[in-house]
Amino acid sequence: GKIAQEIGEEKRKQGTMVYDPQREKEMINQLLDKNEGPFNDNVIKQLFKEIFKASTDLQKSENEKHLYVSRKLKPEDTIVQFDNGGIIGDGNKSFVFGPCSVESQEQVDEVAA
Fold it and tell me: What is the C-alpha to C-alpha distance for residues 78 and 9, in angstroms, rounded to an integer?
């Protein structure tokens, strides 16, 4: 865990994303290429995905660990007014569809992995 935290600190210094799905895929493929058993490839893949997830969770700052809409970060309501007169956050039901309902690129990458 300590090493994962140190890696996270180095990533912050370099401005590198904490979670890089392409890098994770490359690392898992390297592990699978060297797998001689007794665990099958699926077991190796699942084990290391869990290790990588636990490591990236340690590397994330407190702000990154919370949803951007969390009341812990901002307790007051956010009201958004659009040029066409639409309002979101005023107490009436609103629906958001499509990519604008995603909070970060990391969420997209995590779901796609």
Answer: 32
Using the structure block, give the residue that is written with the tokens 């901002």.
Answer: 74
Q: What is the pLDDT of residues 36-52, one digit of tens each?
A: 999 999 999 999 999 99
| Structural domains of the chain, with CATH | 1-65 (1.20.59.10), 68-113 (no CATH)
C-beta separation of 51 from 7 below 8 A: no
Rounded CA-CA distance 11/64 in Å is 14
Predicted model pTM: 0.51
Cis bond upstream, residue 99 (ω within 30): no
68 pairs with which residues across the strands? none
